[in-house]
Amino acid sequence: MSVARIAVLILAVLAAAAAAWLASSFVGTDVQQVQAPEPQIVTDEVLVAARDLQVGAKVTPGDMRWQTWPTEALASGYVVKNQTPDAMIAMQGALVRSAMMQGEPITNGKVIDTTSAGFMAARLGKGMRAVSVAISPETGAGGFILPGDRVDVIVTHESRNDTGRDSIVVSDTVLANVRVLAIDQAFGETNDDTGEKIAVGKTATLELTPKQAETLARSQAMGDLWLSLRSLEDTATGGPVDTGVLGKNRNTQARRGSAVTVVRYGVQSLELPRTGQ
C-alpha cells in the first residue's frame, strides 16, 4: 500500500472520530436541556362545587370540595382554605343564588345565608317587592308551578252591568309574566327529600313592583286568584306587566275581609287591602 493511501486512510479515521465526538457533545447538551427542572407553580386550595348546583338548591357537605388552584389565578371573592379553613361548615345549609357548574369556585355572592333575616330580600331585583298569595292544586296549575317559573295572575270576580242589578262572573288577567320566588318555604325546583320537580304548597311568593303589589292586593279583595303557568318560550319579554284591567272594571264589587301576605326582609305579615281605590 502506498504512503498516499495510508495518509488518506488516517485522515478519514480522524475525521470520523471528530464527527462522533461532536455528535455526542450535542446529544449530551440536549439531554441536559430536557432534564432541566421546571419552575415550581405556587398553589392554594379553593372551595369549588363538587357537582352542578341549581338555583335554590340547599348546599350540603357533598356539594363542596377543596380544589388546588394557582395562587396567581386567584380572583376576588374566592374562598381560600388557608384564609377560611372552616368555610365548608359555614356554607352548609346556604341556598344557591346563581347556578354553578362542577368545579366552579363557590363565592359568597353565589349563595344566600338562610340564617340571616334578609335572605329573601337578597333574591329580589332592585326596586322589586315579594308578595305571597294563597294557592291550591286547583289555583296553582296542579302543583307544577315551581320557583323560578313565570306566571300570569288571573282574578275571577262578579261584575255588575250599568244598571247595577244583574251581575256575571268574569275572569281577567291582571298581571302577566310574573316571576315565582318561592312555593311555601321552598326556593328551588327539586324537593330535597324526594327529588321530584313538583311543589304543591299553600302560598306562592311573587316578585312585583310596588304598584303591581297594590294591583295584586286589590285583585285579592275582588275575588279568587289563579296562577297560570307560562311557557318557557314566553318569558323573554322582560319583567312583570300590569295589564290595566282593574282600571277598566268600574262595576266590580270588592270582597271584604281578604288579606294579602307581604314578605319584608324574610318575615311574613298579613295586610288587609284598602277597598274603594
UniProtKB/TrEMBL annotation:
SMART domains: SAF
All residue ranges annotated as the SAF domain in the record: 44-112
Region forming the signal peptide: 1-23
Keyword presence, Signal: yes
Entries under InterPro entries matching the protein: Pilus_assmbl_Flp-typ_CpaB, RcpC_dom, SAF
Domain of life according to the entry: Bacteria
The keyword Signal is assigned to this record: yes
One Pfam family cited in the UniProt record for this chain: RcpC
Protein name: Flp pilus assembly protein RcpC/CpaB
